Amino acid sequence: MWQDLRSRQLFGHRLKRQHPIGNYFVDFVCLESNLVVELDGGQHLESSEYNAARAAYLGNRGFSIVRPWNNQVLNEMDGVKESILLALNSVAKETKPSP
Asked: Using the 8-state DSSP alphabet, how is residue 40 labeled?
């Protein structure tokens, strides 16, 4: 997935990999848009309390989160990139000041 997201390959948006936010490391983050991308798999089902606390922490700091499943990344990468781009554009519209 990193090959598809690095070096502003997602329509000019810069995403960082394994980036620290507070005490947490997120899979990917676009700091300009406050968007976190977290890959979900079986290991995440076992730690729902931790994930809820982490999501609350990130949300309280203004981050939105997109959570594609690992199998989607492997089998439907174009759809995953589209959902990330939609989220980035949505966040950009929300934070853009009105004239």
From this structure: B
